[in-house]
Amino acid sequence: MNVLIITGGSKGIGKGIAEYYAANDYLVYSLSRTKSNLKKCEEVEVDILDLPLAEQKLNYILHKIDFNYVDKITLINNAGRLGKIASLGNLNASDIDTSIKLNTTVPLVLSNLFIDATKDLKSEKQIINISSGAAANPYVGWSVYCTSKAAIDMMTRTIALEQEGLANGVNCMSIYPGVVDTNMQTQIRSTSIEDFKNVDRFIGLKQNNELYTPEYVGQRIYEMDHGQQLNNGDILDIRYK
Ligand SMILES: NC(=O)c1ccc[n+]([C@@H]2O[C@H](COP(=O)([O-])OP(=O)(O)OC[C@H]3O[C@@H](n4cnc5c(N)ncnc54)[C@H](OP(=O)(O)O)[C@@H]3O)[C@@H](O)[C@H]2O)c1
Question: What would the pLDDT profile of 159-186 be if each residue is shown by its tens digit?
Fold first, then answer.
């Protein structure tokens, strides 16, 4: 039995991933604030910004799974937010805090719990972090987002190093999904040029039909995952892989 636990499976990229894995006979659990009738998935309603509750829900899922039958288990840290798009100096503390918490703290907390709860499981185990090209390239107006994604990549590299010597180690990878047609892109395109000087590039990508669909990204990640293309510590961009 193959198992996927994903944050933010209700919409966008997470939905594309959850439904593609479920269609390929994975047992899929999604953690998000809203449910969206995902095909063949169990949806757990939770605001993962509430850290004790997020841990409780992940524990609930992990205890439902009979580890005796698990061949492979994957946690995908996908839920994320851009926050307000504007240069630093024009943001408020609460928005900064929420973005760092959702994009960085929550993946650290859930990965910590996942690694501990599966430490005696000898099956294949992995954590995939949905990162972004913004981890490696600064964009004016995205300081908090870029920072949070750079942190996720460092988390990937550190987990990989910590786990590589262990007998039952967890593999950890970051994946950049490209520019994908989701609510996050709608938010980007609706930002004023004063707050986001690159807005025209993103409007152009949409007008020229150059955005990936979430379904395509779900399929590509599944294929990379099952085509021996993911190695411990990898930081991969699906556009170039
Ligand atoms: N779209 C792109 O072009 C792009 C590019 C690079 C990287 N990414 C990354 O891809 C990931 C997914 O982005 P997306 O574009 O698919 O965004 P999206 O369409 O806005 O979806 C975000 C997902 O996260 C969930 N979520 C948000 N806040 C949550 C919370 N507090 N508790 C639980 N779930 C929460 C949402 O579910 P609910 O609303 O139901 O809670 C939703 O399922 C993010 O990490 C993003 O940084 C996206």
Answer: 999 999 899 999 999 999 999 999 999 9
**Ligand 1 and 80: CB distance under 6 A:** yes
Catalytic residues: 145
Please work out whether the CB of residue 49 comes within 6 Å of at least one atom of ligand 1.
yes
Q: Which two tokens stand for residue 195?
A: 């707050």
List the domain boundaries for the chain.
Answer: 2-178+214-237
The residues pairing with 176 across neighbouring beta strands, listed in sequence order, are 237
pLDDT in tens, 76-109: 999 999 999 999 999 999 999 999 999 999 999 9
CA pair distance 215, 19, nearest whole angstrom: 8
> Could you tell me which CATH class the domain 2-178+214-237 is placed in?
alpha beta
> Distance of alpha carbon 225 from its chain centroid, rounded?
14
148 Cβ neighbours under 8 A, 6+ residues apart: 80, 99, 100, 103, 104
DSSP strands (E only) in the chain: 2-7, 27-32, 41-45, 72-77, 124-130, 171-176, 235-237
User: Does the CB atom of residue 79 touch ligand 1 within 6 A?
Assistant: yes
Closest by CA position to 76, among listed 20, 24, 16, 126: 126
